[in-house]
Each structure stands twice: as structure tokens, then as C-alpha cells.
Design brief:
elongated; alpha+beta; two-stranded antiparallel ribbon; single chain; 2 helices
Length: about 140
């Protein structure tokens, strides 16, 4: 097996998980943003992955697959309404429309993405060590 193509696959997954971590961080940071540029509460963002075929330079082999970000979309579910008549964004009934960000879900997503990132980073480190050992054997 070509170690470089294995590193390429993990690099794609690292990039995808980094994007996921960034989006989760934005969701957490805006968990209490009741008015965005469009005047509406912040809408949680969701990352969708898709597999991508990588072409082998040597040809003749089966193409390898990696993961990449397919899309980043807004979650259209409604956030809860909180009674707070002193809030600047409260309606005439005193209710404030909150963002649809659930911090528990975001923390689970953050931990999952972090562990997936660490696993792919470990694969890259191990592949590098194997390549260095192979070079030492050739000396």
C-alpha cells in the first residue's frame, strides 16, 4: 500500500473534521444571539459529509475514498421562546425567540468531531513513522 495515498485520505478527513469543529464553535458562540444581520435569531448550522473518490496516480488500481464537507446548511427548527419582557428583542407579549442551539447536542458533536480529528491525526503520524522506518531499512 502506498503510504502517501493513505496520508492523503486522512488529510481530507482532517480538513472535514476541522470544518465541523469550526461550525460547532460558531453554534456555541451564538447560542444566545437573538438578533442577527437579518433581524432573526441565530440559526444553528449543520455540516454534512460526503465521500469523495481519489484518483491514483499510478493507475490501474481501485480509486480510494476520503470524506469531505458536502454542505453546511442552516437547521430550520424553531428555538424556544423565553419570557423576558425587559429584553430588547422581546415582543409585545414579553416573549423572546431564542436561537435553536442546544448546548448539550453541540458539546456531544464537539467531542465526537474532536475524537475523529485525533484519530485521523494518529493515522498520519503512524504512516509518517512507517515511512521513516522504511527509509532507515533501505540505508
Amino acid at each position: 500500500m502506498n503510504l502517501i495515498s493513505g496520508i492523503d485520505i486522512s488529510a481530507g478527513a482532517l480538513s472535514a473534521q476541522k470544518t465541523r469543529l469550526d461550525i460547532v464553535a460558531q453554534n456555541i458562540a451564538n447560542a444566545h444571539t437573538t438578533r442577527g444581520p437579518n433581524g432573526a435569531p441565530f440559526s444553528r448550522q449543520v455540516v454534512s459529509f460526503e465521500s469523495e473518490l481519489l484518483r491514483r496516480a499510478s493507475g490501474g488500481g481501485v480509486p480510494l475514498q476520503t470524506v469531505r464537507v458536502g454542505s453546511i446548511t442552516a437547521d430550520r427548527s424553531q428555538g424556544e421562546q423565553v419570557y423576558n419582557p425587559q429584553h430588547p428583542d422581546a415582543g409585545p407579549d414579553g416573549l423572546v425567540q431564542m436561537p435553536n442551539v442546544n448546548l448539550s447536542y453541540e458539546m456531544v458533536d464537539l467531542i465526537t468531531a474532536s475524537r475523529a480529528y485525533e484519530a485521523n491525526l494518529s493515522v498520519v503520524k503512524n504512516a509518517r513513522q512507517m515511512a521513516m522506518k522504511a527509509l532507515e531499512i533501505g540505508k
